Amino acid sequence: MKEMRREPATHSKKHKKNVEPPGGTGVNRRTALKLGAAAGAATILTSRKGFATDFIGAQSAAAAAATPPPPEPIPCTPQPTHSPETTPFVQPLPIPPVAFPQFTLSPAPTLSANIAGGEAARADHQRWTQFLPHIYYDFHLKPALHQFHPDIPPTYIWGYNGIYPGPTILNLYNLPILVRFHNELPVTHDDTVNFGDNNHTTHLHNSHSASESDGFAGDFWAPGLFKDHHYPNILAGFDTHPPLGDIRERLSTLWYHDHRHSFTATNNYRGLNGMYFLYDFIDTPFEGFGPFAKTATTTSSGPARPDWETNLMQTLLKTEGATTDSLGTTVASAAANFDTNAKSAFPPLFLPGPYGVYDIPLNFTDKKFCPDGQMFATVPDAVPAGDKFCVNGAIQPFFQVKRRKYRFRMLNSGPARIWTFSLLDNGGGVQPMTVVCTDGNLLTAPIPVTSLQVFVSSRFDVIVDFSKTNIGDHWYLTNIAPQFTQNAPEPNPAPGVDINTVVMRFDIVGDAPDNSQVPAHLIDYPDLNLSEVVTTRIWNFDLFGGQFHVNDLIFDADRADAVVKQGTAETWIIRNRLPAAGWVHPVHIHLEEGRVLSRNGVAPGLTDLESGRRDVYPLLGGDEVHIYLRFREWFGKYMIHCHNLGHEDNFMLVRWDVGTTTSLVTSPFKDPAGTIPNTPGAGPGDPADPDHGAQPNPNPPILTEDIFREDRFKPRKAAKKGVVA
What we know:
Number of strands: 34
Structural class: mainly beta
Shape: globular
Helix content: under 10%
Radius of gyration: 25 Å
Number of domains: 3
């Protein structure tokens, strides 16, 4: 298909007011979880024995922290027609370092915002004592220099801890953590001279977290301040599926990024994003029990489980010398009494791992560079179509692999390109990829594909099996459309492989043991309970007069266009009102994963990638998608928006709130004063348009009961057995 177009260079007035959330939570406290052991288990995710790349990356991060920030470059003019030439496959794929956890922060985190201590204003953390964090991360957003390619001079970036992509956070379910984000972006930055904005907010996409830690687009804060985000890492359904939530609601692959409204595209283009992985007993950080296996036999609570919390903690004690957590509890002792999956009915999957060795993040973006190596963008907030394919911050890298299975966690971090990937071998033949996760959610069964379309902010976890290759072979990950400029003179690497479509190369260099597997059954989906559905909402995504709208309105951080009642379910219908040749909108809904009931009236098939749980729903021109959503655990303000970063910056985003009531009208009327012409066909605001703002919710709710009757939406009673690889 065609590459997604970028938005026209039309800029609305930017609302730069800082809108902070209201105080208070109104949430009942529950008995605190046993957290100390989980803290120990997660901390080991940075041990030398666990992950081969961690301390190399940590040294790079430490070097970045010790380096004085570079000055902002002078923007290049005129606009370059193309980036400097680069030679492909001359640099290895960088693996982002693991974020190193710690047991203390100064000043210590608090329930309420520590204004006197330098924290930006925010609401109190919800359920703070119930999910008290024992593990902390300290992130500093700062400028730095980054080498995208040896043929291009170092590039000025903004990065979490001064690196791009940011450090990868590795954690466990039921381990509450806190991340402190320090805004150390240049105080002197002028967005009338240089692109981007130095006010900041971070969104952990798609964490099931409280509103005050969600990174709402209007909750940005200025340089010199920090803000603490509390991530409980609990399963959705925690309150209705005791003791620890519904294991079927788990997701593995998340990412974090700047979400400051009007400047999300430019700030991400500068480098403000990274990845966040969650593990549990089903999707473990290792592909086998190995030396960490328990000798106990199967018990009534489930299969025998590895005692890797305790053993990994002992490794931590030897390598780091840490013996206690911030509360003075011996972590190693606590770890011995903790089971991360005591109630799980699903066995471990043993997908390829560990991180950085056989479990590899792939963060895809495209950029355009000036002759001096600086990224080109238009002041203050327009990002161009890039002409260089970048993976983990490197242009057309190579990655050395062994003859075995690998897990690649693919992320399209934007700003706008739709990637359509294929995997080609030495002879140009198409090789299969096996999808196991969509948007971080395990599918019920693996789905093999030969082509994979990845929209902005979508994630796909794929397994690639190199076991039948020859040492010395090369495989190529390609995109359907080429880069827009030629590289340095370079022959095509294989018959049928266009060098300008190659995103990265895999070099088969040897053999390695493979204890991983790809089971034929991965997990069951949560039940879809029609009795929970209380209403249906309709969201229309449109373009009128050079301005993007949702339900004929542009974003206002002070206005909630819907209120959903906590503990209920709704069906949402999202529509792209533009024709088939128009814009594409990858729509993202914060807080909860959803299930696609139908697209243009057709339910997803069993082998359709849209059959799984999602948080990104691509809308092509004229599309209408019907989604089932629950709203649980948290109160406050969240968003639905187009995740083409330029579109959301042009105000194609909406605030909706989780509260104690259900609003029966979605979106207030746009023009109560009647100043918009009422000429039929005039567009948004025309009373003849049945989809203008202030639309009542359909009554009764639209449930598509014919779809719900189908077997694919009923809970599975028996799991498939065996493995597919």
